[in-house]
Design goal:
Elements (H helix, E strand, L loop, with lengths): L2 E6 L7 H9 L4 E4 L8 E5 L2 E5 L12 E4 L4 E2 L1 H13 L8 E4 L3 E2 L2 H11 L13 H10 L6 H4 L2 H21 L8 H15 L3 E2 L1 H10 L4 E8 L20 H7 L8 E7 L2 E3 L12 H9 L12 E3 L1 E2 H10 L4 E5 L9 E10 L2 E3 L6 H5 L2 E8 L16 H14 L3 E5 L7 E3 L3
Parallel strand pairs: 1-10, 1-11, 2-5, 2-10, 5-7, 6-8, 7-9, 11-15, 14-16, 15-19
Antiparallel strand pairs: 3-4, 12-13, 16-17, 16-18, 19-20
6-O-phosphoryl inosine monophosphate binds next to helix 4 and strand 10.
Length: about 425
């Protein structure tokens, strides 16, 4: 039975949600293993549009078991809010949504800490402000962490927060904060959340391992793109978890060697929200045009995304790290109408041509893209339903990118809706 992962190969790929949604039809479980409500996964079903941040995309289908794995960081009010919105939209959410007892909890002081850090220009990362980094810091630091399972044990939670909150208040005040968190009201608030979370909480490691043993199919949904992976991305302008498939083993308990299919998702161009180097960025009318046509504004924060040409150096690097079997190539329709389209196939660094993605952000910031230019296509392709009906130049662009990356492109998306999906033979 398939154990599949859908992983973004750039910084952010808003179209991951579409592919995951299509694939969730053929899987029994959909699993998030990293990140938290910093993700923005958009699913379009005809007139209906769903934006998910924390919950797995599978939650739109009640017959699929959706799992928030131990590697995810969870802000309980957000969990409750997203579930509430889905129910209000007529989507049934119950036992099908399972939350790991080992997932770490985001508390309001995490958000405050992030706000204070991001308010300073030095060291600013341009985060989503969802408390992700500070929560992972506490996880790895061990002393001040709270896990979902801890919420369900009232006495233990009280004991923990009475120890943690005074420390946090001291740290925040030393950072220039003026807000003090009151232990008792925080305890009362989180105990209330705990009761709403309780029906969903389980040992998801055991659950998933049992499903794998029983031959059930599992779909892993990576949050964030591989270039934001904390180990292999453009550090320090990354997120705080492993978005690459390497995060699956630790973040869900499913051994990565159970994976049978690794699908990398890449857009036909590049975008990035937040700070950090971006060699193919177009700081001009062309960039603005991509942003407008592609509606490139952050799903989570609404920030305009920085846009630019396709960076094949970066995607070759992440496609290798993620060991993808195939690539889903998204938003090709956004490039219709450009006279030429460009692909960065190498970089120039200090007068030398390099083919490998540098390991640090400062070096990447000094890289200039070496472009290959191809003629564009004028036709609107959003109505195309067969690969053979793509304009010749659009098809050449797709084929050239597959050749430069060295991986087959098996899916081409020409619009947000499900039927705007072309399947190419690899
Ligand atoms: P999906 O899953 C694009 C970016 C933020 C910032 C950096 C760190 O929709 O692809 P964080 O709040 O995680 O500490 O911010 O990572 N970032 C994303 N960019 N798509 C995302 O998610 C992102 N999640 C975080 O903008 O640069
Ligand atoms: Mg997104």
């Amino acid at each position: 039975m398939p154990v599949t992962i859908v992983v973004g190969l750039q910084w952010g790929v808003k179209a991951k949600g579409k592919i995951t949604d299509i694939l969730s039809d053929e899987h029994d479980c959909v699993v998030r293993y990293n990140g938290g409500a910093n993700a923005g996964h958009t699913v379009v079903w005809g007139e209906r549009k769903f934006a998910l941040s924390l919950l797995p995309t599978g939650v739109l289908k009640p017959h699929v078991t959706s799992v928030i794995g131990n590697g995810v960081v969870v802000y309980p009010p957000r969990f409750i809010e997203e579930v509430g919105k889905l129910r209000a939209a007529g989507i049934e959410v119950g036992k099908n949504l399972v939350l790991s007892d080992k997932a770490h909890v985001i508390l309001p002081y995490h958000m405050e800490e992030e706000r204070l850090l991001e308010a300073e220009s030095e060291g600013k990362i341009g985060t989503t402000g969802r408390g992700i980094g500070p929560c992972y810091q506490d996880k790895v630091g061990r002393r001040f962490a709270i896990r979902i399972g801890d919420l369900l044990n009232a006495d233990y939670l009280k004991e923990r927060l009475r120890f943690i909150v005074p420390h946090k208040n001291k740290i925040l005040s030393a950072m220039g904060g003026v807000k003090e968190f009151a232990v008792d009201s925080l305890i009362a608030e989180y105990l209330e959340y705990a009761e709403q979370l309780r029906p969903h909480v389980a040992d998801t490691v055991k659950l998933l391992q049992d499903r794998v043993t029983a031959g059930k199919s599992i779909l892993f949904e990576a949050a964030q793109g591989s270039l934001l992976d904390v180990d292999h991305g453009t550090f320090p302008y990354v997120t705080s978890s492993n978005s690459l498939p390497s995060g699956i083993w630790s973040g869900s308990g499913v051994p990565a060697r159970k994976l049978t299919r690794i699908i990398g998702v890449a857009k036909a161009y590049t975008s990035r929200v937040g700070r950090g180097p971006f060699p193919t960025e177009l700081d001009d009318d062309l960039g603005e045009r991509i942003r407008k046509i592609g509606r490139e504004y952050g799903t989570v924060t609404g920030r305009p995304r920085r846009c630019g040409w396709f960076d094949a150096v970066a995607v070759r690097y992440t496609a290798t790290l993620a060991d993808v079997d195939e690539i889903a190539f998204m938003l090709l329709d956004v490039l219709s109408g450009f006279d030429e389209v460009k692909i960065a196939t190498a970089y120039e660094l200090d007068g030398q041509r390099i083919n490998d993605f540098p390991s640090d952000a400062a070096t990447l910031a000094r890289c200039m893209p070496v472009y290959e230019s191809m003629p564009g296509w004028t036709d609107d392709i959003t109505m195309v339903r067969q690969p053979a009906d793509l304009p010749a130049n659009a098809r050449k662009y797709v084929d050239r990118i597959a050749a430069v990356i060295g991986k087959p492109i098996t899916i081409v998306s020409v619009g947000p809706d499900r039927d705007q999906t072309l399947h190419l033979k690899s």
